[in-house]
Amino acid sequence: MATDRCQGRRSMPKIDAPTIAEHRANQERALLAAARAILLADGPQAVTPAAVGAAAGLARSSVYKYFRSGEELLTRIVTDSFAEWGALVRDTVECAETPAGRIEAYVRTTLTLAASGTHRIAVRGGISRDENGCATNAHAQHDMAAPLRAALIDYGISDADLTAALIDGALGRAIDLLDGGHSPAEVIPKAVAFIQRALGLTQHRQRARPPRTH
């Protein structure tokens, strides 16, 4: 009996936090951090429960208590990345006082974050291996552009969805240039000016400029 009780104690999982809920949250964060590191280093195909568990110091069987598959891990880290990126863009955009200013803030902030490498999780993990993951990623991308669409509507653009898609296409090409080694100091101002010209923002600002006082 004593032996059985001792064996039972040895089989209990080690808890490294004040509560089981906090322990689970810590383990989940460790797994997600390991998955991000593997994704950036080796690509989405390398994000497997075995590899992530080994990197986090957990057995593969323990990983399945939190995530059912490598695909679920990928979807989670990409969704989290879009959410974090979107929150940073939204906070900056909301500080601008005019629709034209919000559009510029969206473009400039998106490219500044891309230049810092913030986008790489979303880009590398964004090509999902199953239909549900693709749908989740597409929905996250659509949500992230919501501040841009709202600013376009406020500016008077009738086809805001199409225009936002075209702007994001231009931003994607600008991000490619940044990833290819072009200087942010060169790419970002030119991309901002290009989109301003395409939408007539520069002309709008000139018309809206108050008269000088002498």
CATH class of the largest domain: Mainly Alpha
Q: Please tally the β strands and state the result.
A: 0
Main sheet characteristics: none
Helix content: over 70%
- The overall average pLDDT, rounded, is 82
* pLDDT < 50 stretches: 1-13, 203-214
The shape is: elongated
What structural class is derived from the secondary structure elements? mainly alpha
Protein name: TetR family transcriptional regulator
DNA-binding region: 48-67
Pfam family, one: TetR_N
GO molecular function: DNA binding
What does this structure look like?
Residues 48-67 bind DNA. One of its GO terms (molecular function) is DNA binding. Residues 25-85 form the HTH tetR-type domain. Keywords: DNA-binding. It comes from Nocardia panacis. With 214 residues, the protein is mainly α. The chain has two domains: 14-67, Arc Repressor Mutant, subunit A (Orthogonal Bundle), CATH 1.10.10; 75-206, Tetracycline Repressor, domain 2. Helices cover 76% and strands 0% of the residues. The chain has helices spanning 2-11, 20-42, 49-56, 60-63, 70-95, 99-115, 120-125, 131-144, 146-155, 160-179, 184-199, 201-208. Helix 2 crosses helix 5, helix 5 crosses helix 6 (99-115) and helix 5 (70-95) packs parallel to helix 8 (131-144). The radius of gyration is 23 Å and the shape is elongated. The N and C termini lie far apart (97 Å).
